[in-house]
């Protein structure tokens, strides 16, 4: 489901790497609440701040079975393990799924909204979501995993899909 506040590929803002947050904004709780609301309205399970126009190195994620969301500022993956291939969709590339190989387990470090350092060991779908959102913060989209030939084919189909969405 498309959401009017989510930036959509090929928006050039999505290709920018977001710098680390040096001073946590005083309205961080409002920002993360907005991110969670937009993510849930769009039926997503993860959202990076730059997907809705914030130049903040921050993401939110919540799997359907989770009560509490994962909110991480300045995320860094310290270590990875395993590998799995799985199709991924993206709120910024609506209607598209691309098979992407990713580690199945990650050790993540970052900062919470209170400015305290946090570490997580994540596996399965949440490990994949975190890697996907960090890709966004680095200016990498799921389409960047396509070969040149597949990307050209994708572009033709995607343009048709976007025109259909606009109608």
Automatic annotation (TrEMBL):
UniProtKB keywords: Hydrolase, Iron, Metal-binding, Protein biosynthesis
Superkingdom per UniProt: Bacteria
Enzyme's top EC category: hydrolase
SUPFAM superfamilies tied to this protein: Peptide deformylase (SSF56420)
Cofactor binding, per record: Binds 1 Fe(2+) ion.
Binding site for Fe cation: 90, 132, 136
Cofactor: Fe(2+)
Catalysed reactions, semicolon-separated: N-terminal N-formyl-L-methionyl-[peptide] + H2O = N-terminal L-methionyl-[peptide] + formate
GO biological process: translation
One family name in Pfam for this protein: Pep_deformylase
Entry's Gene Ontology molecular function annotations: metal ion binding; peptide deformylase activity
Active site: 133
Enzyme Commission number, as recorded: 3.5.1.88
Function: Removes the formyl group from the N-terminal Met of newly synthesized proteins. Requires at least a dipeptide for an efficient rate of reaction. N-terminal L-methionine is a prerequisite for activity but the enzyme has broad specificity at other positions.
Family note: Belongs to the polypeptide deformylase family.
Name of the protein described by the UniProt record: Peptide deformylase
Gene transcribed to yield this protein: def
């Amino acid at each position: 489901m498309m959401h009017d506040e989510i930036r959509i590929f090929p928006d050039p803002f999505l290709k920018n790497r977001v710098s680390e947050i040096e001073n946590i904004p005083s309205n961080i709780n409002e920002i993360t609440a907005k991110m969670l609301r937009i993510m849930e309205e769009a039926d997503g399970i993860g959202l990076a701040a730059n997907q809705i126009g914030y130049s903040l190195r921050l993401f939110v994620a919540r799997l359907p079975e989770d009560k509490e969301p994962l909110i991480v500022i300045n995320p860094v993956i310290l270590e990875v393990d395993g590998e799995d291939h799985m199709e991924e969709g993206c709120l910024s590339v609506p209607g598209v799924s691309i098979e992407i190989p990713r580690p199945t387990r990650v050790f993540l470090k970052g900062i919470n909204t209170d400015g305290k350092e946090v570490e997580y060991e994540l596996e399965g779908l949440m490990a994949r979501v975190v890697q996907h959102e960090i890709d966004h913060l680095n200016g990498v989209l799921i389409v960047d995993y396509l070969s040149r030939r597949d990307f050209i084919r994708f572009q033709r189909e995607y343009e048709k899909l976007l025109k259909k969405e606009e109608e």
